[in-house]
Specification:
Layout: H1 17-32, E1 48-53, H2 59-70, E2 74-78, H3 91-100, E3 105-110, H4 114-125, E4 131-137, H5 143-157, E5 171-175, H6 182-193, E6 197-201, E7 233-236, H7 239-243, E8 248-251, H8 267-274, H9 278-281, E9 290-291, H10 304-307, H11 315-335
Parallel strand pairs: 1-2, 1-3, 3-4, 5-6, 5-8, 6-7, 8-9
The structure holds N-carbamoyl-L-aspartate.
Amino acid sequence: MSSWSHRHILDLSTFSLEDFNIVLELANRFKALPKTGTRKLPALQGRLITTLFFEPSTRTRSSFELAAKRLSADVQSFSPNSSSISKGETPIDTALTYIGMGADVLVVRHSSTNVPRQLVQYLEANGSEAAILNAGDGLHSHPSQGLLDLYTLARFFNPKEPLTESIKGKKVVIVGDILHSRVARSNLWALTACGASVALCGPPTLVPQEFEDFVKAPPPGQGQDPIKKRGTITVFRSLKDACKNADAVITLRLQKERMQENLLTDLEQYHNEYGITHENLKWCNKSAPVLHPGPVNRGIELSSALLEDASKCLVSEQVSNGIPIRMSLLYLLATH
Ligand code: NCD
Protein backbone atom coordinates (compact mmCIF):
# COMPACT_ATOMS: atom_id res chain seq x y z
CA MET A 1 0.00 0.00 0.00
CA SER A 2 3.07 2.24 0.07
CA SER A 3 2.31 3.70 -3.36
CA TRP A 4 -0.98 5.30 -2.26
CA SER A 5 -0.42 9.04 -2.72
CA HIS A 6 -3.81 10.78 -2.41
CA ARG A 7 -4.24 13.04 0.61
CA HIS A 8 -7.87 13.73 -0.37
CA ILE A 9 -10.33 12.20 -2.84
CA LEU A 10 -12.29 14.72 -4.89
CA ASP A 11 -12.47 13.00 -8.24
CA LEU A 12 -11.45 9.78 -10.05
CA SER A 13 -9.76 11.63 -12.93
CA THR A 14 -6.58 11.69 -10.81
CA PHE A 15 -6.55 7.91 -10.21
CA SER A 16 -3.89 5.72 -11.83
CA LEU A 17 -4.60 2.08 -12.63
CA GLU A 18 -2.59 1.20 -9.54
CA ASP A 19 -4.81 3.44 -7.37
CA PHE A 20 -7.92 1.66 -8.63
CA ASN A 21 -6.34 -1.71 -7.91
CA ILE A 22 -5.21 -0.68 -4.42
CA VAL A 23 -8.83 0.19 -3.59
CA LEU A 24 -10.27 -2.95 -5.21
CA GLU A 25 -7.77 -5.26 -3.53
CA LEU A 26 -8.40 -3.75 -0.13
CA ALA A 27 -12.17 -3.90 -0.69
CA ASN A 28 -11.80 -7.59 -1.48
CA ARG A 29 -10.09 -8.20 1.81
CA PHE A 30 -12.75 -6.26 3.73
CA LYS A 31 -15.53 -7.99 1.81
CA ALA A 32 -14.14 -11.41 2.80
CA LEU A 33 -13.97 -10.57 6.52
CA PRO A 34 -17.44 -11.79 7.60
CA LYS A 35 -16.59 -15.23 6.12
CA THR A 36 -13.71 -15.49 8.59
CA GLY A 37 -16.06 -14.65 11.47
CA THR A 38 -14.74 -11.08 11.80
CA ARG A 39 -17.12 -8.15 11.33
CA LYS A 40 -15.13 -5.37 12.90
CA LEU A 41 -11.45 -4.45 12.73
CA PRO A 42 -9.53 -2.20 15.15
CA ALA A 43 -7.74 -0.46 12.23
CA LEU A 44 -9.08 3.08 12.82
CA GLN A 45 -9.55 2.94 16.58
CA GLY A 46 -9.32 6.47 18.02
CA ARG A 47 -9.67 8.15 14.60
CA LEU A 48 -12.56 10.51 14.01
CA ILE A 49 -14.63 10.32 10.82
CA THR A 50 -17.16 13.12 10.27
CA THR A 51 -19.95 12.93 7.72
CA LEU A 52 -21.04 16.38 6.56
CA PHE A 53 -24.03 15.99 4.27
CA PHE A 54 -25.54 19.28 3.15
CA GLU A 55 -27.74 17.37 0.65
CA PRO A 56 -30.11 14.50 1.40
CA SER A 57 -28.77 10.96 1.27
CA THR A 58 -30.02 7.52 2.23
CA ARG A 59 -27.38 5.02 1.22
CA THR A 60 -24.14 6.98 0.83
CA ARG A 61 -24.18 8.50 4.28
CA SER A 62 -25.21 5.38 6.17
CA SER A 63 -22.78 3.31 4.15
CA PHE A 64 -19.87 5.61 5.08
CA GLU A 65 -20.93 5.60 8.72
CA LEU A 66 -21.18 1.82 8.84
CA ALA A 67 -17.83 1.50 7.04
CA ALA A 68 -16.23 3.78 9.65
CA LYS A 69 -17.76 1.76 12.51
CA ARG A 70 -16.57 -1.53 10.99
CA LEU A 71 -13.05 -0.08 11.26
CA SER A 72 -13.71 0.96 14.91
CA ALA A 73 -13.46 4.71 14.18
CA ASP A 74 -15.47 7.30 16.12
CA VAL A 75 -18.20 8.75 13.91
CA GLN A 76 -19.72 12.21 14.08
CA SER A 77 -22.46 13.24 11.74
CA PHE A 78 -23.75 16.63 10.77
CA SER A 79 -27.28 17.38 9.71
CA PRO A 80 -28.13 20.82 8.21
CA ASN A 81 -31.64 20.92 9.69
CA SER A 82 -30.55 20.99 13.30
CA SER A 83 -27.36 23.02 12.85
CA SER A 84 -26.08 26.60 12.78
CA ILE A 85 -26.58 26.64 9.00
CA SER A 86 -29.99 28.05 9.86
CA LYS A 87 -28.13 30.84 11.75
CA GLY A 88 -26.17 31.74 8.62
CA GLU A 89 -22.97 29.73 9.08
CA THR A 90 -21.22 28.88 5.78
CA PRO A 91 -20.48 25.23 4.87
CA ILE A 92 -16.75 25.94 5.05
CA ASP A 93 -17.05 27.32 8.60
CA THR A 94 -19.18 24.33 9.57
CA ALA A 95 -16.48 22.00 8.23
CA LEU A 96 -13.76 23.93 10.06
CA THR A 97 -15.68 23.47 13.31
CA TYR A 98 -15.47 19.69 12.90
CA ILE A 99 -11.81 19.91 11.89
CA GLY A 100 -11.26 21.88 15.08
CA MET A 101 -12.76 18.95 17.01
CA GLY A 102 -10.10 16.71 15.49
CA ALA A 103 -11.77 15.05 12.49
CA ASP A 104 -9.27 12.87 10.62
CA VAL A 105 -11.51 12.44 7.57
CA LEU A 106 -14.42 14.65 6.54
CA VAL A 107 -16.85 12.95 4.20
CA VAL A 108 -18.55 15.87 2.45
CA ARG A 109 -21.63 16.11 0.24
CA HIS A 110 -22.75 19.47 -1.10
CA SER A 111 -24.71 20.78 -4.06
CA SER A 112 -21.72 22.94 -5.03
CA THR A 113 -18.46 21.60 -6.45
CA ASN A 114 -16.62 24.44 -4.78
CA VAL A 115 -17.23 23.27 -1.23
CA PRO A 116 -15.01 20.12 -1.13
CA ARG A 117 -12.38 21.84 -3.31
CA GLN A 118 -12.24 24.97 -1.15
CA LEU A 119 -11.91 22.81 1.92
CA VAL A 120 -8.91 21.03 0.43
CA GLN A 121 -7.33 24.39 -0.44
CA TYR A 122 -7.91 25.67 3.07
CA LEU A 123 -6.47 22.53 4.70
CA GLU A 124 -3.43 22.57 2.46
CA ALA A 125 -2.76 26.26 3.06
CA ASN A 126 -2.94 25.68 6.82
CA GLY A 127 -0.91 22.47 6.99
CA SER A 128 -3.84 20.52 8.42
CA GLU A 129 -3.65 16.73 8.49
CA ALA A 130 -7.40 16.24 7.95
CA ALA A 131 -8.51 14.59 4.70
CA ILE A 132 -11.52 15.43 2.52
CA LEU A 133 -13.51 12.64 0.89
CA ASN A 134 -16.04 13.90 -1.62
CA ALA A 135 -19.38 12.09 -1.21
CA GLY A 136 -21.03 13.92 -4.13
CA ASP A 137 -20.57 17.56 -5.20
CA GLY A 138 -23.11 19.10 -7.55
CA LEU A 139 -22.96 17.51 -10.98
CA HIS A 140 -19.21 17.02 -10.76
CA SER A 141 -18.20 13.83 -9.04
CA HIS A 142 -19.17 10.97 -6.73
CA PRO A 143 -15.99 8.93 -6.44
CA SER A 144 -17.11 6.30 -3.91
CA GLN A 145 -20.14 5.46 -6.11
CA GLY A 146 -17.91 5.26 -9.21
CA LEU A 147 -15.62 2.87 -7.34
CA LEU A 148 -18.37 0.67 -5.94
CA ASP A 149 -19.93 0.38 -9.40
CA LEU A 150 -16.52 -0.58 -10.79
CA TYR A 151 -16.07 -3.15 -8.02
CA THR A 152 -19.56 -4.58 -8.59
CA LEU A 153 -18.84 -4.99 -12.31
CA ALA A 154 -15.37 -6.43 -11.69
CA ARG A 155 -16.86 -9.00 -9.27
CA PHE A 156 -19.57 -9.85 -11.77
CA PHE A 157 -17.09 -10.39 -14.63
CA ASN A 158 -14.36 -12.05 -12.58
CA PRO A 159 -15.48 -13.12 -9.07
CA LYS A 160 -12.09 -14.73 -8.28
CA GLU A 161 -9.95 -11.72 -9.12
CA PRO A 162 -12.10 -8.59 -9.36
CA LEU A 163 -9.42 -6.08 -10.38
CA THR A 164 -9.21 -3.52 -13.18
CA GLU A 165 -8.15 -6.15 -15.72
CA SER A 166 -11.65 -7.74 -15.44
CA ILE A 167 -13.17 -4.59 -16.97
CA LYS A 168 -10.75 -4.29 -19.92
CA GLY A 169 -12.47 -4.66 -23.29
CA LYS A 170 -15.98 -4.83 -21.79
CA LYS A 171 -18.77 -2.73 -23.26
CA VAL A 172 -20.83 -0.91 -20.62
CA VAL A 173 -23.98 1.07 -21.47
CA ILE A 174 -24.85 4.07 -19.27
CA VAL A 175 -28.40 5.15 -19.99
CA GLY A 176 -30.42 8.11 -18.78
CA ASP A 177 -29.78 11.51 -17.30
CA ILE A 178 -26.03 11.75 -17.90
CA LEU A 179 -26.09 15.56 -18.01
CA HIS A 180 -27.13 15.95 -14.36
CA SER A 181 -25.32 12.92 -13.01
CA ARG A 182 -22.15 13.10 -10.94
CA VAL A 183 -22.33 9.30 -10.75
CA ALA A 184 -22.08 9.02 -14.56
CA ARG A 185 -19.06 11.34 -14.59
CA SER A 186 -17.27 9.22 -11.99
CA ASN A 187 -18.27 6.04 -13.86
CA LEU A 188 -16.73 7.50 -17.03
CA TRP A 189 -13.35 8.20 -15.42
CA ALA A 190 -13.28 4.78 -13.73
CA LEU A 191 -14.50 2.61 -16.61
CA THR A 192 -12.39 4.24 -19.32
CA ALA A 193 -9.31 4.04 -17.06
CA CYS A 194 -9.75 0.27 -17.00
CA GLY A 195 -10.15 0.07 -20.80
CA ALA A 196 -13.92 -0.42 -21.05
CA SER A 197 -15.77 1.05 -23.99
CA VAL A 198 -18.71 3.05 -22.73
CA ALA A 199 -21.94 3.57 -24.68
CA LEU A 200 -23.86 6.59 -23.41
CA CYS A 201 -27.52 6.53 -24.31
CA GLY A 202 -30.40 8.99 -23.99
CA PRO A 203 -32.09 11.94 -25.69
CA PRO A 204 -29.91 14.93 -26.75
CA THR A 205 -31.31 17.07 -23.88
CA LEU A 206 -29.92 14.60 -21.32
CA VAL A 207 -26.92 13.17 -23.20
CA PRO A 208 -25.17 15.94 -25.17
CA GLN A 209 -22.95 14.70 -28.00
CA GLU A 210 -19.92 16.46 -26.41
CA PHE A 211 -19.78 13.73 -23.75
CA GLU A 212 -17.83 11.67 -26.34
CA ASP A 213 -14.83 13.92 -25.51
CA PHE A 214 -15.37 13.84 -21.73
CA VAL A 215 -12.17 11.97 -20.81
CA LYS A 216 -10.02 13.22 -23.69
CA ALA A 217 -8.29 15.85 -21.52
CA PRO A 218 -7.75 16.05 -17.76
CA PRO A 219 -9.94 18.63 -15.98
CA PRO A 220 -8.60 22.23 -15.84
CA GLY A 221 -5.84 22.74 -13.32
CA GLN A 222 -4.92 19.06 -13.30
CA GLY A 223 -1.60 17.89 -14.76
CA GLN A 224 -1.25 14.91 -17.06
CA ASP A 225 -3.81 12.13 -17.29
CA PRO A 226 -2.41 9.30 -15.13
CA ILE A 227 -3.91 6.76 -17.57
CA LYS A 228 -1.93 6.10 -20.77
CA LYS A 229 -4.74 4.74 -22.91
CA ARG A 230 -8.38 5.12 -21.95
CA GLY A 231 -11.36 3.23 -23.31
CA THR A 232 -13.72 5.03 -25.66
CA ILE A 233 -17.04 6.83 -25.13
CA THR A 234 -19.72 6.74 -27.84
CA VAL A 235 -23.11 8.47 -27.69
CA PHE A 236 -26.19 6.58 -28.92
CA ARG A 237 -29.76 7.80 -29.28
CA SER A 238 -31.22 4.34 -29.82
CA LEU A 239 -31.17 1.98 -26.83
CA LYS A 240 -31.17 -1.04 -29.14
CA ASP A 241 -28.00 0.17 -30.90
CA ALA A 242 -26.31 1.01 -27.58
CA CYS A 243 -27.07 -2.43 -26.15
CA LYS A 244 -25.62 -4.37 -29.09
CA ASN A 245 -22.77 -6.59 -27.74
CA ALA A 246 -23.00 -4.86 -24.34
CA ASP A 247 -21.80 -6.67 -21.22
CA ALA A 248 -23.66 -4.54 -18.64
CA VAL A 249 -26.08 -1.62 -18.35
CA ILE A 250 -25.95 1.14 -15.75
CA THR A 251 -29.18 3.10 -15.65
CA LEU A 252 -29.49 6.44 -13.85
CA ARG A 253 -32.19 8.33 -12.06
CA LEU A 254 -33.83 11.25 -13.82
CA GLN A 255 -32.51 14.06 -11.61
CA LYS A 256 -35.65 16.17 -11.71
CA GLU A 257 -34.44 18.41 -8.86
CA ARG A 258 -31.30 19.35 -10.83
CA MET A 259 -33.00 20.05 -14.14
CA GLN A 260 -32.95 23.79 -14.84
CA GLU A 261 -35.79 23.68 -17.33
CA ASN A 262 -38.30 21.13 -18.46
CA LEU A 263 -35.98 18.85 -20.41
CA LEU A 264 -38.46 16.01 -20.52
CA THR A 265 -42.09 16.48 -21.28
CA ASP A 266 -43.36 12.94 -21.28
CA LEU A 267 -42.15 10.41 -18.70
CA GLU A 268 -44.13 7.58 -20.29
CA GLN A 269 -42.42 8.18 -23.60
CA TYR A 270 -39.05 8.33 -21.80
CA HIS A 271 -39.77 4.94 -20.22
CA ASN A 272 -40.76 3.48 -23.57
CA GLU A 273 -37.56 4.67 -25.23
CA TYR A 274 -34.97 4.44 -22.47
CA GLY A 275 -36.46 2.59 -19.50
CA ILE A 276 -34.69 -0.73 -18.84
CA THR A 277 -36.90 -3.80 -18.73
CA HIS A 278 -36.39 -7.57 -19.03
CA GLU A 279 -37.29 -7.27 -22.71
CA ASN A 280 -34.75 -4.69 -23.78
CA LEU A 281 -31.99 -6.05 -21.51
CA LYS A 282 -32.07 -9.03 -23.92
CA TRP A 283 -30.61 -6.73 -26.63
CA CYS A 284 -27.33 -6.98 -24.69
CA ASN A 285 -25.04 -10.01 -24.41
CA LYS A 286 -26.73 -12.95 -22.76
CA SER A 287 -25.86 -12.61 -19.09
CA ALA A 288 -25.61 -8.78 -19.00
CA PRO A 289 -26.83 -7.36 -15.65
CA VAL A 290 -28.36 -3.96 -14.87
CA LEU A 291 -27.02 -1.58 -12.20
CA HIS A 292 -28.52 1.56 -10.69
CA PRO A 293 -26.95 3.80 -7.99
CA GLY A 294 -30.33 4.51 -6.38
CA PRO A 295 -32.67 6.07 -5.52
CA VAL A 296 -34.75 4.52 -8.32
CA ASN A 297 -37.80 6.07 -9.96
CA ARG A 298 -39.65 2.77 -10.35
CA GLY A 299 -41.26 2.33 -13.73
CA ILE A 300 -39.37 5.26 -15.27
CA GLU A 301 -35.69 4.42 -15.73
CA LEU A 302 -36.10 0.82 -14.56
CA SER A 303 -39.12 -1.48 -14.49
CA SER A 304 -40.27 -2.70 -11.08
CA ALA A 305 -40.09 -6.32 -12.27
CA LEU A 306 -36.43 -5.96 -13.24
CA LEU A 307 -35.56 -4.03 -10.07
CA GLU A 308 -36.89 -6.96 -8.04
CA ASP A 309 -35.12 -9.66 -10.08
CA ALA A 310 -31.82 -10.27 -8.27
CA SER A 311 -30.66 -12.64 -11.01
CA LYS A 312 -30.41 -9.67 -13.41
CA CYS A 313 -30.35 -6.57 -11.24
CA LEU A 314 -27.26 -5.81 -9.12
CA VAL A 315 -28.71 -2.95 -7.04
CA SER A 316 -28.43 -4.81 -3.71
CA GLU A 317 -24.94 -6.00 -4.66
CA GLN A 318 -24.00 -2.36 -5.23
CA VAL A 319 -25.33 -1.37 -1.80
CA SER A 320 -23.49 -4.23 -0.15
CA ASN A 321 -20.23 -3.55 -2.03
CA GLY A 322 -20.40 0.11 -1.00
CA ILE A 323 -19.36 -0.84 2.52
CA PRO A 324 -16.00 -2.53 1.75
CA ILE A 325 -15.24 0.15 -0.86
CA ARG A 326 -15.86 2.93 1.67
CA MET A 327 -13.90 1.04 4.36
CA SER A 328 -10.98 1.01 1.90
CA LEU A 329 -11.22 4.73 1.16
CA LEU A 330 -11.50 5.71 4.82
CA TYR A 331 -8.63 3.40 5.73
CA LEU A 332 -6.39 4.78 2.97
CA LEU A 333 -7.10 8.42 3.84
CA ALA A 334 -6.90 8.02 7.61
CA THR A 335 -3.65 6.04 7.64
CA HIS A 336 -1.53 7.61 4.88
C1 NCD B 1 -26.74 9.47 -6.32
C2 NCD B 1 -26.33 10.85 -5.92
O1 NCD B 1 -26.76 11.39 -4.91
O2 NCD B 1 -25.50 11.40 -6.63
N1 NCD B 1 -27.18 8.61 -5.35
C3 NCD B 1 -26.29 7.94 -4.60
O3 NCD B 1 -25.39 8.51 -4.02
N2 NCD B 1 -26.41 6.61 -4.53
C4 NCD B 1 -27.56 9.43 -7.52
C5 NCD B 1 -28.86 10.15 -7.51
O4 NCD B 1 -29.14 11.03 -6.71
O5 NCD B 1 -29.64 9.84 -8.42
